[in-house]
Every structure is written in C-alpha cells, then in structure tokens.
Amino acid sequence: GTRVTLHLKEDAHDYLSENKLKDASKKYSQFIQFPIYVKVKKEVDAEAEEDEDDDEGEEKDEVETKDEEEKEEEESKEKKPTKKTVYEWEQVNTQKAIWLRAKEDVTEEEYNEFYKSISKDYLDPLAYTHFNAEGEIEFKSILYLPKKAPFDMMDNYWSKKSEVKLFVRRVLVAEKFEELLPRYLNFVRGVVDSDDLPLNVSREQLQQNKIMKVISKKLVRKVLELMKKLAKEEESGDDEDEEKDEEEEDGEKEKKQEKKDAPDEEGTWSKFWKEFNKNLKMGCYEDDSNRSKLSKLLRFTTTKSDGKEISLDKYLDRMQESQESIYFMSGDSLEVMSKAPALQIFKKKDLEVLMLSDHLDEPCLQKLADYEGKKFVSIQKADVKLDETEEEKKRFSKIKDMYKPLTDWWKEHLTDLTEKGAMKDAGVKVEKVEISKRLTESPVVVVTSQFGYSAQQERVMKAQAFQSKDQISMMSGRKTLEINPNHPVIIDLLSKVKSNKEDKGAMDTAAVLFQTALIESGFDIADPSALVSRVYRLMSKELGVDPDAPLKEVEIPEDDESEEEDDDKEEDEEAGDSGGEDKAEL
C-alpha cells in the first residue's frame, strides 16, 4: 500500500480538526467507490472489572478473608462506570451514488431521500428525471423539480448561480455553477456526473470548456421535457374528465371524480405553475433558442376560462374560424380588466381575450410575437382589426364623414389642452380622434399607438427606482381618442359643435371626457386639479348654482347665539347652587 503524509503550515492547523476533515471528505468525496475512513476520538463507558483483572488474580487470598460488608462495598464500587477514550476508524462516504444505478433498481423512497440530502429541503420533490446521456459526450444525471419555491428565489436573480452539483468521476467539482443551467432554471436541483471532463483544472477553465456547453444544452432540454410531460398529463386528464362528464351518468361521474380528486385537488402542473410561473415567463423573455418550447408551457386566464388558467393550445382550439389573431389585454386585476371599455366589442362578438394580470405577461408575449402562425394583438392599442361585412364598412365610412366636424374640432381642442393648456406637463400626446369600432356602451376610450407602452407597462416603468422620465415619455406612444357615435353624449356634443365651435360647455365636456377616458383606460393623469375643477363646475351647473359666483362667508343667525348664551348662564347658576348645597351639608 501507499502512504501519503501531508505536512500543514502553522496557520492551516484548523484542517487537522476532526470536524473539518469529516466535512471536507463528505463534501467532495461522498460518492467515491472505495471507502474513506477518518480516525475519530470517542469516549466509551468501561467497567472497573475489566481494568482490574490483573490485580484480582494477585490478591485472591486477601479477598477470601474479607468480611461480607467489605464485599458489598467492593461490588458497589465495581458497578460504577468509568469513561475510556478510544480511537476508531469511521467511514465517511456511506452514501451511494444512485445515479450510477439503473432507474428500475432505484425506489421512489431512495430518490426522495437523495433529493433531501442534496437540497436540504424538508419536502419531497414534485417530479424528477433520471437519465444517461450518450453520444459524443457521456454523462449521468438526476434532476429534481421542488414542490415549493424558495422564499428568496427572485432576490439577486441576475447574480444567482445554478444549484445543480457537478461531479467528475464521482468527485465534486462545483456546488454552484454559472453556466450549467440558465438563470430562469435556478430552482432546479440535482447532480451531473461526467467522465469526459478534466478533473485537475481550475473551475474557471472548466467553465470555458466546450463539453460544458453541450452538457448545459442537454440538461435544459431534459428539464423542459419533464415540464412538458407534467403539463400534458394534466391537460389529457382534464380532457378525459370533460368527455366523461358528457357521456357518463351522474352516479358514475361522482365516483370517478372522487377517486381522481382524492389524492390531489390541484394537478401537479398547476402546483408547479403556481410556484414557478415567473421563472418560465423570464425564460420566455431571455432564452431565444427555447422560446417556442416554453410558450407551450405558459398558462393564462381568459374571458371564457371561468378564472382558470389555460394553455395557448386550448385557446387556439376554441378560436372562431374567421379569427386571425390571439387577442390580449393587460391590467392590475381581472375585475378591473373585465369592466374595461376596450373589451366591449369582443364580448359582443363572443371573442376570447387573454387577461394578463402579471407584470411579466405582456413583455413575454411581445417577445413571442406569434404562436402557431397567429399574431398576438393587444386590444388596448390602435391597430386592432375585426371582421366586418361590406354593409358595416359602408355604414362606418358614412358615420366617419358625418362626425368629421366633431373629430377635427376635438383634435384641435385636445392638442391645445395637452401642449399649452392644463395638461401640458402630463406628457400626454394626442395623435388623433376617430370613430371607434370597439365601443358598444361607453362614450369614449383612449388607446395607445401600436409600438408604444400600454397603460400597465407605463405604470410598471414609472414604479422603477432608476426610471428615466425622458425615456418613459418617448416610449409612451401617442394616444388616440376613440368615440362611440351611438352614445347620446357624443350625439349632443356633435350638435353643439355644429352650431357653435366656441361653446364653452362643449369644450368643458370634451376635456372631461378625454381625462376620464384616460383614467378608465388605466393611464395616469399627472395633474388631476384641472379635471377636479371641471367636475366641480359641472356639478354646480347640475345643481343650478353659478360656478363662477364668488365665495362668501356664511352668516350665523343671531337668535342662535343668544340662545346659546342663555343656556351657558343657566348651566353656571346650576353649578353655583350645587356648590352651596355641598358646603351646607359639610
């Protein structure tokens, strides 16, 4: 055998401690095939009888002559245990490398225990994949998807490294490796063991190794395949439930549903999506090569999904034949979005719309651009096109001509309002005023240009700590005011403008309608004081009060004052009488 002796410097004597040796051996050589022993110091209970065997042999004659009392004392002394220091060799690398075994030979319990040992998680994993990669590069791996997202998962997102451990011939090379998995998959746990990587080089050189890039590519593909499998299982289960609900009788339905719902109320993919949806949306935004795969895993709530999140494939299955685009809208909450004026025509025509309530949804869809040949179109922007008959087109062109005086006048008035008037500091630029095809109930709606920020994106950008106001105003896009030609307020405004373009009441109404439309569409008004003063004026007119009348102090009637003084005098007298009575009693 070979014996290697390491001589340590004085400042490195910490490495001679038992715990340090154990930790280092466990960390880097836990899965080495040959046993690694560390010499440990232990204290063992040793009876006095074992230590005094020789003495008892010499003094047999004396023991025989002792009294019974002395014997009893000696027996009690013998029973008292004493501590003994022993040095033993203890094996450190007791855990076996389960990734080297065939999948069939590893039990579910072993997979779960192994996950807990490498991740320090108290829960079992949600799913795992165990595979051997063969071909130009060979490696073995087990990858796990956790049940719960770590509380600090999105903290330091840009600087976080992958938590998959890299082994080379069962020796740990790196616990956290930057290029093993992309940032958005930093929640994946597991091990990778390769025989093709060099063991005796620095980690920096290893990161530049071409083999690492191939391993990384294969790992990403395997993780996405595992996610796709989970999503497919849940979708196929949902489809089966729907078909059975239609075909089977009520009694059989209930039994089968109970069996299915008993183990898990929520599907495996639903649980995973709830915890890690932000990561997948970030992946969709960042990872160009895997964007199409990730798009199939995305889930969104729609106007027809009854609060449930559905896949884009399901949306395509439910699309109308003549529908050429996938429609979406963004907002703070589903309740607010469901009341938005831009949604009215889509409800009327029974068109399904994706409702994006998460801040990452809209950038994700903008990066996707299209899905299965169908483009994503925001219903809150000016470029929405809907199917129309020839009659509808003719009617629309006639209405456009009919309302031309109003749209031209309104555009001029809004340009003055936003560039010279009360809204000049608001950063709102009006491109045009036109007849709307999307309004059925509301009088007006404000939409932004095709490539500008939506209302939701504007709010998100303004909330950034290091936001640039110049950049926001540049990217906000020009606003378009769309008017509903069938609404009585718009009809009345048209008649007023035709009779007198300088009508002050019409100007006030036009300004208030534009500002309220901005608020209803989700945009911010920089200075609300102009809108508030206009609302007060309109309320005054409604009540029949002159809004320009000067304010006067309210006069208080004298009778009330004199009554109050009399009441105060009476109270003082009563107080004086009661004080006199108390003195008399004393």
Please supply descriptive tags for the structure shown above.
alpha/beta; six-stranded mixed β-sheet; elongated
Structure description:
The chain has 586 residues and is an alpha/beta fold. Helices cover 46% and strands 16% of the residues. The protein contains 23 helices and 16 strands. A 6-stranded mixed beta sheet has the order 9-8-11-10-13-12. A 5-stranded mixed beta sheet has the order 3-4-7-5-6, with helices on both faces. A 3-stranded mixed beta sheet has the order 14-16-15. A hairpin with a 2-residue loop joins β5 and β6. α10 (268-286) packs across α15 (361-368) and α17 (404-419) packs across α21 (504-520). The chain is elongated and about 110 Å long. The N and C termini lie far apart (114 Å). The model is unreliable at 51-66 and 249-264 (pLDDT under 50).
The low-confidence runs, each spanning 5 or more residues with pLDDT under 50, are 51-66, 249-264
Overall mean pLDDT: 79
Number of strands: 16
- Count the DSSP helices: 23
Radius of gyration: 40 Å
The fraction of residues assigned to DSSP E strands is 15-25%
Sheet with most strands? 6 strands, mixed
Q: How far is the N terminus from the C terminus?
A: 114 Å
Strand line-up in the sheet with most strands: 9-8-11-10-13-12
- Class of secondary structure makeup: alpha/beta
Write the layout of secondary structure elements.
Layout: H1 18-29, E1 37-47, H2 48-51, H3 53-58, H4 60-65, H5 68-79, E2 81-91, H6 108-119, E3 127-133, E4 139-145, E5 163-168, E6 171-174, E7 189-194, H7 203-207, H8 210-247, H9 250-261, H10 268-286, H11 291-295, E8 299-302, E9 309-311, H12 312-317, E10 325-330, H13 334-338, H14 344-348, E11 353-356, H15 361-368, E12 370-371, E13 374-378, H16 390-402, H17 404-419, E14 430-435, E15 444-448, H18 455-462, H19 469-475, E16 479-483, H20 488-499, H21 504-520, H22 529-542, H23 558-585
Parallel strand pairs: 5-7, 10-11, 10-13, 14-16
Antiparallel strand pairs: 1-2, 3-4, 4-7, 5-6, 8-9, 8-11, 12-13, 15-16
